[in-house]
Amino acid sequence: MRVASALGVEGRGSRLVGAFRARLDALEDGVVRGAVRPRVAFVEWLEPPMVAGGWIPELARIAGLDPVIVEGSRSFAEVSWADVAHAAPDGLLLLPCGFSVARTMAELERPLVQAGVDLVSAGTRLGCYVVDGDALFNRPGPRLADSAELLAALFRPGALERGPSRFAGQFRRYA
Question: Is the pLDDT of residue 25 over 80?
């Protein structure tokens, strides 16, 4: 709203903010309340692994997920891949800051990274996905509604009428 106010277009800004909030509210309302929430590990850096913090845990909860290893001082904390595996997530999301899907996939060819991700992925029931962290998760803005919808599409199959196909090119299943 500050930008809209500075540009003298408060009405348009208010409508955009309202539409953004409505999308998030609709997603949150669409997630079955009381249902088991899949536990997902969000890794924002690969070597050393760093768990995502900031707005990511809130987006996860809106999408009906339970983020692991992100509470309190553990947000944006360096952890080991063994720590992530020990948290026993149902799914793993790799969203490295500033990386495209292609760049993250290239990083997964590094032996230490690959071994760590494989260790965690082996114990998940929902698999591991690589997403375009740069485009969808690492910057605040209206695209975060897309981000939350993608989370639900990947880790809560059937939660949305439209599945993850509308996000083609912005994610890839790793394992």
Answer: no
